[in-house]
Specification:
The protein is of the alpha+beta class. It is built from five helices and 16 strands. β7 and β8 form a beta hairpin. The longest helix has 33 residues. The radius of gyration is 29 Å and the shape is globular. The N terminus and C terminus are likely disordered.
């Protein structure tokens, strides 16, 4: 092995200036003490500057990492995804495609995850998807049937898992416990989207904190399927198409005026609904009277689908006839939690957070 010799400083002088050939000239050359003091002064200044710089950097790091977890997670999202732009290869699970992968478990607490929902569903059955299937929040609020060694559970998507790839998903502890023993940690699973899951009620709308007549951002809830597009307008104006953000809010730059607003929602299967009378009321959940699909006080009787069939090749997705419902009477009541359970778990309601 070849060893690299370090320079000896011109005669083996010690770094503190003692010995022959020392860097500050003491010894051998008999240089006066003045230059020594000046050079030591420079070293003191350099050391002080480094200390100040370290303190400043430390304060910046403390400030950055003391922000809410959702803000820190947003920084890790690719720029195009943060801007709501289409990202190649990123699409939420939909149709009848069955995905083979693995599942682990985590506890998101009472957070609404990267989807920024008001909180976890009442049954605490939720999931986090990798970036490709989270798709810039396109998967938020949709449902998956996940089959593991011990059965099938229905979960709501409410989070992004930065470390999940190759169809790896992260389930809440409650959801994981329905398909495997928690002690197993990671298990093989198959999962697929739930098309037109039973809805717990009409669409809900929550305007983001900081909205005004000059900047508009709304979150849509209780839509069942992944949402494809959102548009909004004030009475007497034309529709403005909103941009999807990675935090599950739909943004109209420049705002729409003081309201009230009409909001049009279209899902990936062509269902369409228009709600009216949505007020400029930040952070309040406003519940309308229109459903994304279905009718009546309940969105149809739940059915119990069988476990997903093996295979990973996409097949033709169902094509329900689009329908448009109009009219809404918003209220400040939060969305109700789901009560029907076609498989283990409910099919609607707000959701939680965090990613293991």
């Amino acid at each position: 092995m070849t060893e690299v010799d370090l320079p000896d400083g011109g005669g083996g002088g010690a770094p503190d200036g003692t010995g022959d050939g020392a860097a500050d000239g003491v010894g051998g050359g008999g240089v006066a003490a003045g230059p020594v003091r000046r050079r030591r002064g420079r070293r003191w200044l350099a050391g002080g500057s480094a200390t100040v710089l370290a303190v400043v950097v430390g304060l910046l790091l403390v400030w950055q990492f003391s922000e809410p977890a959702a803000c820190a997670a947003a920084l890790a999202v690719p720029p195009a995804e943060r801007a709501g732009l289409p990202v190649q290869g990123m699409t939420p699970p939909s149709g009848t495609t069955v995905y083979k992968g693995k599942a682990s478990h985590y506890d998101g607490g009472n957070s609404g995850g990267n989807c920024s929902l008001p909180g976890p569903p009442a049954n605490r059955l939720y999931a986090a998807l990798g970036s490709a299937q989270y798709a810039g929040s396109a998967a938020c609020g949709s449902f998956l049937d996940v089959t593991g060694p011990r059965g099938t559970v229905r979960v709501m998507v409410l989070d992004r898992c930065a470390g999940c790839a190759n169809n790896k998903i992260d389930l809440s502890r409650q959801a994981f416990a329905k398909i495997a023993d928690l002690s197993q940690g990671i298990v093989p699973v198959r999962y697929r989207a739930v098309v037109d899951p039973p809805l717990p009620g009409p669409l809900t709308f929550r305007l983001k904190g900081g909205v005004s007549q000059y900047w508009f951002a709304v979150q849509v809830g209780q839509h069942g399927n992944p949402v494809r597009s959102v548009a909004a307008r004030r009475a007497g104006s034309s529709w403005r198409v909103a941009k999807r953000g990675s935090d599950n809010y739909w943004v109209v730059d420049g705002g729409l005026g003081p309201g009230p607003y009409s909001i049009r929602v279209v899902d990936v299967y062509g269902h369409q609904a228009v709600a009216t009378g949505i007020r400029l009321a930040p952070r309040q959940v406003q519940r309308g009277t229109v459903r994304m699909y279905g009718s009546g006080p309940a969105a149809g009787s739940p059915t119990r689908p069988g476990p997903p069939a093996p295979g990973n090749a996409p097949t033709a997705a169902p094509t329900p006839t689009p329908g448009t419902a109009t009219g809404a009477a918003p209220s400040d009541d939060p969305a109700t939690s789901p009560t029907a359970a076609p498989v283990a778990g409910a099919a609607g309601g707000p959701a939680p957070a965090g990613c293991g």
